[in-house]
Write a structure and sequence with these properties.
298 residues, alpha+beta, five-stranded mixed beta sheet, three-stranded antiparallel beta sheet, 10 helices, 10 strands, 37% helix, globular
Amino acid sequence: QFRDENGFIDLTKAEIAFTAQSREVVGNPDRIKNWVNFNGQKALIKGEAILQDERNYGIYAELIVEEIAKQLGVETAHYDLIKTIDEGGNEVYGVLSESVVDSDKGEQLISLRDIIGDEPIGEGDFVDTTSLDFTIDKLRENLILDGYSESDVEKLIIDYKKRLAFSLAVIDTDKHTENIAFIKKKVDGKDVISICPNFDSESALMLDNDYTTVEMLLSDYFGLQDSVNIAHPRIGTLKSKSKGGHNSFWKDTLEKLYEDDEVLDYCDEVLQGTIDMDIVLANVEEKIKTKLPENVRY
């Protein structure tokens, strides 16, 4: 009953306020990021990312990627559009996402970075990207040191690789080591770890570009294609053409993931040609009870 004509839930009408105690301690201090009680659920309120004073469509990317994930059977966080007023009296637009962790069941969220640490600076050809080989090797090494069986660790690594493949499919350029996580809990007294549902995909589908750039790309197919080609994942691999690679983060990362037959089958059987965007967009519009902006749809 608090949703406006543009699809945004008005948190001021829902009487949800922010406090210093509700603030998320990790992330940009200038951006609203607060944990609240929303309709009995623990939820994160995240204001949209505004770069160089121009807005983008990243908040819609969260909802669209959620629907794509559902269509593909990928576990995902739940998102919705919100608006509120910040401490300075300014109107803020953003998203709400329900917590993916059930603390009552003893679940604990742990990021990939928490497990593997940071890659040593100056290695390879990576700029703002963590080597895929590094993440897999450290994940395997540290989880075995933590007492997990080799079979459990190898299954988790397969799930991790599949999640990376999904991120490539939706062109998610911000899946760094803190935007991929795992859930730890005890089952019958035994420590169990699994990959966390997908979350934080506001940089997917090229929708994190500012309004002006999106307008330009929509009228220039080849420009859009070039923009996708030069974008790169935050976890990946790069192999030069002289060494038999593509000299492309996207293609070389995908080829590296394809070395595992189970991941190759997953890409062929699940990701390839199975996403019906008409259904995805219709589901998002049903959720927000209005049409998506035309630039987002196309």
